[in-house]
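Hey, resending since the last one bounced:
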Amino acid sequence: MYDFQVFGYYAAAIARTFFPSGNEFASLMLSLMTFGAGFLMRPLGAIVLGAYMDHRGRRDGLLLTLGLMAIGTASIACTPSYASIGLIASPADFHVSVQSGDQACRPTTCAPES
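The structure tokens again:
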């Protein structure tokens, strides 16, 4: 729930930064679609990381999940804006968002109780 609130608060700024600003509504919708694509990747992350946690344990899975989320967050922060690199910014933001969403599995719900 927290990530929805944070993204909703910053959606307009993300739209202006990473997407063409010819049409503000289209930029906002592209921004929200990017968030949605990342959110849809969560079940895949749960499957992959859940299997990893079944084999390696919850502690290793939690450390891996936190590390991957830190990398994803840093990647979003370091992605150049639309003004800097043009149309490449939109797919770059989409790729990083999907990658972050893929790693957003909740460590306590991925693996069954041992």
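The longest helix spans residues 58-78.

Sorry for the duplicate.
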